[in-house]
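#struct-pred

JT: dropping the chains for the assembly here, can someone run the whole complex?
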Amino acid sequence: MAPPAAIEVQGDSDTTGIILPDPLLAPIPSNDILGRRKKADKAQWGTAAPCDTANFRLKNYEGKPKAKRWDHILTEEAKSRKGNSLKNAAKYLSKPGLITLGGGIPSSEHFPFEEISVKVPTIGHFSEEETRKTGVTLTAGKHDLAEGKSIYDISTAFNYGQGAGSAQLLRWVTEHTELVHDLQYEDWACTLNVGSTSGFEAALRMFTRPGDMILSEVYTFSAAVDCATPLGIRVVGIPMDGEGPLPSAMDDILTNWDVNTRGARKPRLLYTVPTGQNPTGCTQSFARRKALYKVCQKHDIYVIEDEPYYFLQMQPYTGPNSPDVPPPKTHQDFLKSLVPSYLSIDTDGRVMRLDSFSKVVSPGSRIGWVTASRQVVAAYAKASDLSTQNPSGISQLVFFKLLDEHWGHGGYLDWLVHIRMSYTRRRDTILAACERHLPHDIVSWIPPMAGMFHWLKVDYTKHPDYPAESVESIQERIFMGNIDHGVLLMPGSYFYANVEEKHEDLFFRATYAAAPAEKIEEAIRRFGESIRKEFRL
Amino acid sequence: MAPPAAIEVQGDSDTTGIILPDPLLAPIPSNDILGRRKKADKAQWGTAAPCDTANFRLKNYEGKPKAKRWDHILTEEAKSRKGNSLKNAAKYLSKPGLITLGGGIPSSEHFPFEEISVKVPTIGHFSEEETRKTGVTLTAGKHDLAEGKSIYDISTAFNYGQGAGSAQLLRWVTEHTELVHDLQYEDWACTLNVGSTSGFEAALRMFTRPGDMILSEVYTFSAAVDCATPLGIRVVGIPMDGEGPLPSAMDDILTNWDVNTRGARKPRLLYTVPTGQNPTGCTQSFARRKALYKVCQKHDIYVIEDEPYYFLQMQPYTGPNSPDVPPPKTHQDFLKSLVPSYLSIDTDGRVMRLDSFSKVVSPGSRIGWVTASRQVVAAYAKASDLSTQNPSGISQLVFFKLLDEHWGHGGYLDWLVHIRMSYTRRRDTILAACERHLPHDIVSWIPPMAGMFHWLKVDYTKHPDYPAESVESIQERIFMGNIDHGVLLMPGSYFYANVEEKHEDLFFRATYAAAPAEKIEEAIRRFGESIRKEFRL
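RK: done, full complex below.
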């Protein structure tokens, strides 16, 4: 995508110097997000000021249904939350001339920070090398807000905040959500969190009680199982095909749920990673998502849509010797190329979407966000107020400078296309290496459409010691053989949703996200050697 | 304290350019912390690398007792935690030449950050005005670690991390803890967290189960109660005097605990804010701490020592017209002026200390740390791995640049003395205003020795409508009268440990942390007027 010309946009008098960079956004309603912002209440930019995500939405939701209530699924813990009781006093703070000796927050004069700067890429010049040469330095001062230079500064970001996050970044995230998803009900909301790992744990505490079982892919994100187990939660794995969990299998599990056999009441929660799933790399088609959503409606299942890899959807794979598919020409083309989310299907407000900056900006920021119905978001934000509080204000300020004041929504989409093309190249590298180095009668795969993972199926029935030796034993021998050959891949069994379920396949997970291209090639070559030796080929 | 001369220190070849600024530290063993650092394993500085806090301790603990085990108090949730199961594969990563396609972490080439800088005060020139004039800019590059420029950089800090935090900052925090506290048992450890609010919630999940009661001051931090209530935890308030909770009262409560009357098993947890307590401003004397610790030993109570205000211990209050007490002359004098912590008394490893940067550096960083026995710290860090993960790497990198590479331990102590003197002036301002403007026969107080809060006792028995009107009703009338007069103070009832307990006093909490001096004076003047009107004086 060629770097678009920058155009100045007026509209939000609280926001100076904002550039809307991209005329390519013109065909879609997001073309002038910054310009269409409502006149904002300045109080919300202040220290630990509350704000309402509803004020940041730009589309009209009149006539759309209201979200269902989830009182029957929410735990007592979630329902009894009242948030921070001292905030009751906050309603008096707007009285003109009032002096408050109420809030125990430090004065910013005691923060030993005068300025913070980050050097970041200009739009369209995103590579590390280009950033070194043409990057710009964004600076936030200590009192930029009071001095009218910006709506966010060190004195507010480095002080206490709200569990929902700062209004400054929450606005951006709300707009971005509206730009990417076509929300189907009226009362949706966003709230920031400290990342999706925390988000999933919070969701378990909101929607499950010890002894419960939840649904997930039969191979699932291992940290989700590791998080659930100590809370007394077990996972039921839904059998999958190349498009994700099978709706009929999910329906069967729920229709035939036997409390005594299972030792748990019927599940109320589906945890799914619809795009570039970890570990299988599987991306659910739009049809599959709609079918699974219908099963959720039938059995009144609440959905946790965990989507760290949503913007790691790549260009179509054309095979080892075919020309690459050119990148999307417009932002509209790019957005259209993304499989619609559960959030875009959800008419009931039964989806809590977990979004993350970890895979597309930086994991160390520990900033993510949640989109769900107002009831669920309010419960989530109240829990945050009394546990994680807000994500780091230092992270929030850095992200605000980059995303809102520097790139804007259009520039961020350009960045995402840049990431998409880079992952496409990495994915194509590992696939070419697999084509070249792996014995195709033993190792097979489906080219991943999204994410960081390549899921390699090993036909253990062709192992000379099978069936005398078990699948698990063959897996362990391959794993150790790989180490001997100087390559580490993750054994598929590490990702069992439930170790007590029967598993009759053997997989290894390889990531193409971290290593440089030449190392990926060499790693797969070693894996091929290891397999050949183990299978005595 | 005059700015000390800077001297270069050698010793840690991984850390370039570190300055140990302060010969004043000479009399205490911390005089050359940076120089005495052990030769560090370089692998621990890398992306998401594990580290062991034990490697960062510099004192010798041979001959000290081992911490007791807490298996009988830890919950099943805490005991069953295995951490992130994928880390089992990490042991193979040290094999020379191994290429890993294992870990699903992004490559730093995809982080759109080339440099991050902060402008901060030089040692001894700490005010905002001085920082503007003489502050220095600290810069972290993207690949400083690989380039040998620093042990911490953007490529590591902005990537995934460990629940315990980065080795770089955990080392500093461990050393600081050893410098400030005189630990009495062998196997203590530190782990970073996302702040003490999260730390307290994590502690409740580790040490209590729904239905439990815990002990705290009769007036306590309201957010602690707000956090505990949804978990099904109630608080028993221990009656206090000017030195904090009364040991005899605590012993009585526990000795005479009746499960049926209380509706809960005997408490196993004391939550206390020993220094500048919120809301009472009370600081427990050393003798009081030792006496309470003995009661904890007698009844096998585990202690959560929440100490955000530890370094807001101020100069002695000399009265409205006496000369100020000069600041501590040396770091040793400063450290000696601090009341010893529970951590320094604890021979059993029965204390989990929550430390925070919020009141002395910046709350927005969302970095705090926990000090406790290795068993408890390991359980805590495992829980973090699967919930909050590490504190923001952006925050950690900024703090590392400031605290480790720029100020060092001596410079940080100088900063803490600067904060101490500033809070002393603020405290003296509010006390002088109270002397001047409040009717002394109605409103009384004990000058706070630490913290942010001034706790004002109102003699409601002198109210013309008492006893016809209840204490609660008089409190509400004063609160609203204050608002009418343009000042907000927090009603004491907001801080009841347990609303069902009988409370026969009437207090208001005023903070001197936030407002400028002239506003504090005016606010107290208005409060005096409001009280006079309400009491018809």
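JT: nice. The first strand of chain A starts at residue 7 and ends at 8. Chain A touches chain B through 118 residues (CB under 8 Å).
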